[in-house]
């Protein structure tokens, strides 16, 4: 019996190692970006220091639609998110002259913020689209999420002493410390890890398992969307230009009828006689997403249709989705989400390092493992370097530059690519401290340039200090003592 | 309410750690021999269950329950890092957690 159990455990450990290795780097990017996305609005606000004005959500959306009405041409839709306690700008995604753009709009003037940037939206998109074209990024993300679930479950089964070693971390003991650290990062936050992986998978389930939808609806996607949000009125474009009625009264009416606060505002066919304004209640008011919506005739401001979600299956899905998005979370819960995400990111990183450490202590590394060692040295410090470079580019690139927002993203991607190249070219004992040190420097500069005193700058400085300590530690030659002690034992 | 949940959860995790032979000494010291502290793990599970119950009954649409699950790694990490580097920190957090539980009904 116990031989069987031991055998099963070894199989689980084998599967844990290989799933982790194959998709580990992708998961590292996803988890780091997801962790940062917890503070998406706050990061956006930090990245637009010139935009300080605040306004009532209804007035801000009115200002935004006024600006959009005169500055877009041939739009099929404006997708707006009203300002909240967490951010002062109106987030707007819209098309104009055939191209789709994302802008943060000033709540008073309605014009885009002068420091053109994607803000936290970059990390959010990176988290599940991985900067790859649709649908490949999302497909890769959902496959990686499945591997994550497999790695979590096999990891739990393979763990020999999950309760006895729960509080155990033995530092400065080589492989033993890496294993302890990897276990602690995984085990202490197991409920969070399982929750965030499962809810993330469900979020992308209609992409990798579309058959339930296609069996019921065939190819009629419009019917799917209608059934998911019956409060959204759909109308074909009339091609008769009629200006949009004032939107602030619609918002106040929506607030009165839906309760809570205003969240998203969609304007479909703006400037047309068939324009529809749909207003959703804020996703921050409860765990469940999209709890209620109401549609207005855009030309007259007359209510068309309202819906309060009370179907069990949809509400269940909305809670699962809402748990992943964490929009409902208070500031304390948000930091705990950040902690859980950071622990998962570090669990993946330590797991990838452990693969090498374990094999290095047994025998000299094979060629394949030496390649993996250098990939680790490039990717693990390189992805955070890319994130830091993104924030630094936000501070350094001049305002008003054409394609400024895209340049920030390119800076992030090129910095990460350069780090991976450096990891491949240099021996790991140099590339690790150099890249970690560079990330610390980039964080420090991003926090200090512009002298904006904020929580985020303080967090950046704290991260920089921790990374600088880590880099200094990596520069010291490795201790040989633990190995000798192990052999004597 | 969340303060009581957090305080009880920390005390529960601390008691669970103190119930492990490897950690009893750094966490409890000579007090481990006290008759009332013979079986800290039992108190630990009871405290965890109690804080979970309060979170369930909070009536805030599940937010306290999410917080409860999020607090587990936070409380555990304080104890784990404390045991490795500075056991005085998790010990000093015990009266703080007790104070949080006592003050919670007043706020």
Give a verbal description of the structure.
With 489 residues, chain A is an alpha+beta fold. In chain A, 61% of the residues lie in helices and 9% in strands. Chain A has helices at residues 2-37, 40-46, 57-71, 121-129, 136-158, 175-187, 190-203, 205-208, 211-217, 221-228, 247-258, 312-325, 331-362, 367-396, 404-425, 428-448, 455-475, 481-488, and strands spanning 77-81, 90-96, 99-105, 262-268, 276-281, 292-297, 303-308. Chain A has a seven-stranded antiparallel beta sheet with strand order 3-2-1-4-5-6-7, covered by helices on one side. In chain A, helix 5 packs antiparallel against helix 7 and helix 14 packs antiparallel against helix 15 (404-425). The model of chain A is unreliable at 483-489 (pLDDT under 50). Chain B has helices at residues 2-18, 21-28, 40-56, 63-85, 88-103. Chain B is built from five helices and no strands. Chain B has 107 residues and is an all-alpha fold. Chains A and B meet through helix 7 and helix 13 of A and helix 1 and helix 4 of B.
